[in-house]
């Protein structure tokens, strides 16, 4: 027994020594990140694990590697992992440990941006809404309740990573971690005054205390305390220079932009411009850059923030929403990566010599890196109109406008950012051949709006919230639903000036969509437009003698995710709510007794699930109700053959949510944009000049988002259930399943 024990102990010691031997030392100097003492160029790309599925991860990571990346970067999404206080979820596409291990299995590094504030166009910036219900809570500042909760979550993530030996210091893939996020941006830290400055210091001190064995970064943080590394975000970072002796690193090179429901434009940043930005960055001393995004993915369920961020988060990234190569961007950048890695030693150890051409020192420049007898040269033309002939070392080189030529031997041009060799691919959507060519067979049932019943108005119901004021929807619903009913009544006696007459109902709301019902009848719908998420609803009413009931359904479409004090932005119907007679009499209902009900009957009955025992009262196709608000639709469809990505074409519907086999594929909305408005798009796209999201946009005059991703892992081998809740009213006849290929 003793011999066996000794052998076991020896095995443990040998195993531990192997782990130590595979540990990676990550340090840095003023030039670059150092891996085991060697300066390195790091090419990274953002892939957010919850914006795809666990089944998609291996392919996405492999394509990132094949595209020439060294690392995969991701945020950590607090509200996804802790939606309910101290109830954690790391299953399915939230399995962060699995995601990290898959990155390691491909031989890539990982950059873990823990935050826990992430922005990312993610609901509430990644914060769980239950924080808002804690006493004396203010997020992202030197606030003890927040600091306690923030430290608790960050510590949990760090402990998970340590337990699985995922930090590079333990032999894992994680070479960098991030605390906080973009806090130094304009009008963020400064708005919190001295408490904001203290908060930055406390975040850094706390991060260092976790002893993870790899450096910490704080992006967009000029006052990042030592040893935090301040990094840049933006479309261009060539002119970013850290204030301290730390490497020049770029955490977010925006490969495109996100979409919102306010307009139909699809942002497009050209491959030429992204490559130009990358080449300029490395020409001017950069050594780590990360594409935000490399794969954007999908905002499944209710995770989209904003407000009004769309379900698609394609971002015009090198890998499209479905994980396919976005050509020519993917291929053009891959070529650039190969060139940069081939001169890694020169860029990280070489002496740089800069030269300006002409009167403008910024527009026309050459840079030469020399090391141990080898050289690499960059010729940059930052003029956005004119090509330039460079006379460099006795030879003429023509460099197109807004481009960089790279000469790995300072003689021959091997790459120019404006000359794209990668083939362009066009997305082709094809109908599902397995389905009936005449369309899907639908059943339906109505969603019953919630109303007060006059005979029960004064009876308090168990489990129902009552208040003599209008409450913040965020506080009441606690992010469990987009929907909250505000219900009250008004008793009109014979002596009342409103008795038997007319009045205008006026409702001020800070939610995003409002449905109004008076005495059980729908009287109007209104939603926020043009980025103004506060609006007034008005409707003329006929007042009846006695009890009159008012039901207002407030709908949120994502909570704010950016800016100082975004947690203090209230949502829902905040009032006033008044009735105004033609003679000027005002009856204020703001401080009436209001009854609150979260969600919808169909959601409560879980109509989106597959189990039939909860699904009685579905009506057949012969009685199909169309162009009617608040309707549930259900159908089945065949799984398309092959491996091409699957999408739902939701044309014909208005606004709502869709589920496939019980999986929430996200909010849909096709009618929020004026289809006739075409400003912002043109048939031509000039890559030259600074990029902005309106430049080179496409899809003008079309629905904001028509197609919705259904991951293959959501599907069964044969028949699949599709359930839709339609709010506005539409016709499901045009809804169909398609596959996406590339030609």
TrEMBL record:
Main location: secreted
InterPro entries: BetaGal_gal-bd, Galactose-bd-like_sf, GH, GHD, Gly_Hdrlase_35_cat, Glyco_hydro_35_CS, Glycoside_Hdrlase_35
Top-level EC class as recorded in UniProt: hydrolase
Similarity comment: family membership: Belongs to the glycosyl hydrolase 35 family.
Residue ranges constituting the Glycoside hydrolase 35 catalytic domain according to the UniProt record: 33-338
Domain Beta-galactosidase galactose-binding: 631-720
Organism name: Nicotiana tabacum
Highest rank taxon of the organism: Eukaryota
PROSITE patterns with a match to the protein in the record: GLYCOSYL_HYDROL_F35
Gene from which the chain derives: LOC107815965
Name of this chain's protein: Beta-galactosidase
SUPFAM superfamilies: (Trans)glycosidases, Galactose-binding domain-like
GO terms under biological process: galactose catabolic process; plant-type cell wall modification
EC number, UniProt record: 3.2.1.23
Listed Pfam families: BetaGal_gal-bd, GHD, Glyco_hydro_35
Gene Ontology cellular component list: apoplast; plant-type cell wall; vacuole
Location of this chain's protein in the cell: Secreted, Extracellular space, Apoplast
